[in-house]
Write a structure and sequence with these properties.
Blueprint (H helix, E strand, L loop, with lengths): L3 E6 L2 H8 L6 E7 L4 H5 L14 H12 L2 H7 L6 E4 L8 E3 L5 E3 L2 H5 L11 E3 L4 H21 L4 E6 L20 H19 L2 E4 L22 H12 L53 E5 L5 H8 L5 E3 L11 H4 L2 H9 L9 E5 L19 H8 L5 E6 L2 H14 L24 H12 L4 E5 H6 L1 H11 L6 H7 L12 H6 L4 H10 L1 H11 L4 H4 L1 H8 L5
Parallel strand pairs: 1-2, 1-3, 3-7, 7-8, 9-11, 9-12, 10-11, 12-13
Antiparallel strand pairs: 4-5, 4-6
Helix pairs in contact: 4-6, 6-7, 6-19, 12-14, 19-22
Length: 555
């Protein structure tokens, strides 16, 4: 009987679990450790050589991290892999973003060898659990998931969901790891694990909290993630359906560990395809009798105000005032008769215009919530449920790095930030970083209303040629751009600047490392927009240009 071939991407948690598998039934093909998804997702490190280590295993792992070799190992070993075993323990120390955007995992070896102190000047540490780390890491683990789906579609992917232990099997407290305890890590780890399961399409294998303990007799010593034999046996039975073996106490007879959980079903990512309008969702409030049939949904800091002013001057577009905006962003308004009446009244004087327009640039931002991003009301679902089937959506997008920097200074100008705050330290409810995840936002709107009803235009085109941009927008709405209208509307564009901000920008300059991190963070979203529009956007990817623009007080 052939053996099940296992590829491990994780830490000693996965490796030690594998050691409990029956060696007559399972064999290890490759073990990739000490490599954060951030490193696996980005370019290989070329600015500095990896440290020289005494252990050949540690040398291989750390060198692999510098080479970002998971990207090549997955396709290379695809044909000989049946099972992928994953855990997230090696993410715990965070990672370093180097000045060119490449990433080095902060591993025990990096710290103990002194290589951490020899990283290039300007390298930035991003801590596990920080907003910056989670945002960046979420894109990275999604990219890793795409690699597994593309190259190993028939392999089962299992993600170990085991909390850190706070007590040993003898009941004594577990020593902290680099100052981190189970109480510190477990709340964070739960959210990372949930995101990883989604991104990888993995089956979660869990261990009940009541049996999680460490072992002082573990071969590598006592630590929050060096578990007792009972933990490994529980994992083994859930994954393999057998009791496995006990590699560290071969003379002890194996004990049956009853399965206490049901293995979750595998999930898959939802993709938007086709042009059909989705069916109405149950439980919706009654549709509005009067209201808009065009929503200008965003994105913020992408020329939406300019567009609102031009649409308001078109004879076939009626743009509502303040009472006709933000309605779908506030769930408290949706069911109140007085709020509904106020909103509908804002469109009463449309005069038969073809388009009745609600311009609310926060609508486009879709966030399901969590400790690292705010939970926002689902504006797309509300629009779908409350407006008619002919409602359309207009979205203007700007390169996401520049949009984030512009959003940062806009938030600062509003008095919400201290000058010393970095771009990743802005409170998440302002959306400075999260608004740039265009793929998530667009896919949700397209799934809610139908992809053919969501029209996307680029701020770049407004800057390059305002009149041509306006004509293109009107064409997507089946509106004429007469000479009289163009003369009346005006097509000049000047990006708004607050001159009083200049000295603050000089004192609190956005760093090149932040720009590099943002660009890596948005890489998938940029590719998505390129595919969506069928055009290359090289300036969106030009790191040198972005650094020059946004670190010279010109944002």
């Amino acid at each position: 009987m052939s053996k099940t071939r296992v590829f491990i991407y994780g830490s000693c948690v996965s490796r030690d679990t594998f050691e409990h598998f029956d060696p007559e039934q399972f064999e290890l093909i490759r073990y990739v450790a000490r490599q954060s998804a951030l490193s696996a997702y980005t370019r290989p490190v070329t600015l500095v050589e990896p440290p020289v280590l005494e252990s050949s295993f540690q040398q291989r792992m750390v060198s692999g991290d510098y080479a970002s070799d998971l990207q090549t190992l997955i396709p290379e070993l695809a044909s000989v892999t049946d099972l992928v075993l994953v855990d997230l323990t090696d993410e715990r120390l965070g990672a370093y973003i180097l000045p060119d955007g490449s990433v080095v995992t902060r591993s025990v070896e990096l710290v103990q060898s002194g290589a951490e102190s020899r990283l290039p000047a300007g390298s930035q540490h991003i801590a596990f659990g920080s907003d910056q780390h989670f945002h960046y890491w979420s894109s990275a683990i999604s990219a890793v998931g795409e690699l597994f789906r593309q190259h190993m579609p028939r392999a089962a992917v299992v993600l170990l969901d085991v909390p850190w232990a706070d007590r040993s099997e003898s009941g004594t407290p577990v020593p902290a790891s680099f100052g981190m305890t189970a109480a510190d890590v477990n709340p964070l780890l739960r959210h990372y694990t949930k995101e990883a399961a989604r991104a990888l399409g993995a089956e979660l294998v869990t261990v009940p909290d009541g049996i999680v303990s460490s072992s002082a007799n573990h071969p590598w010593g006592d630590a929050p993630f060096h578990y007792s034999r009972l933990v490994y046996r529980t994992l083994t039975e859930q994954i393999t359906g057998t009791e496995g073996r006990d590699p560290w106490a071969p003379t002890d007879p194996p004990q049956h560990v009853p399965s206490t959980t049901t293995a979750p079903r595998r999930t898959s990512a939802t993709r938007v395809s086709g042009t059909s309008r989705p069916s109405a969702q149950g439980g919706a409030l009654a549709p509005l009798e009067n209201g808009p049939n065009l929503i200008v949904a965003g994105a913020q800091r992408s020329g939406v105000s300019w567009l609102r002013e031009r649409l308001a001057k078109h004879p076939d577009a009626y743009v509502a005032g303040p009472d006709g905006r933000h309605f779908f962003a506030h769930p408290g308004r949706l069911g109140k008769p007085e709020e509904i009446a106020k909103y509908e009244a804002a469109y009463a004087d449309h005069g038969g215009a073809r388009w009745r327009v609600d311009v609310t640039p926060t609508y486009f931002w879709h966030a399901a919530g969590g400790p690292f991003s705010p939970k926002r009301h689902d504006a797309a679902k509300a629009v779908h449920n409350r407006l008619g089937p002919d409602t359309e959506v207009l979205v203007a997008l700007r390169d996401p790095v520049s949009r984030a920097v512009s959003g940062y200074w806009h938030t600062f100008a509003g008095g919400h930030l201290q000058g010393s705050s970095g771009i990743f330290q802005v409170p998440t409810h302002f959306g400075v970083v999260d608004l740039g995840f265009y793929r998530r936002h667009h896919e949700h709107w397209a799934a809610s209303l139908g992809v053919d009803r969501v029209h996307v235009h680029l701020y770049d085109d407004l800057v390059a040629d305002p009149e041509t941009y306006l004509r293109r927008v009107l064409r997507s709405l089946r509106l004429e751009a007469s000479p009289e209208y163009l003369k009346n509307a005006g097509t000049q564009h000047a990006e708004g600047r607050r001159t009083w901000l200049a000295p603050f920008k000089k004192q609190s300059q956005i760093t090149p490392q932040e720009i590099a991190a943002l660009l890596e963070l948005y890489r998938d979203d940029i590719a998505y927009v390129e595919d969506l529009l069928g055009r290359d956007l090289p300036e969106w990817r030009d790191l040198d240009r972005l650094i020059e623009r946004h670190t010279s007080q010109r944002s």
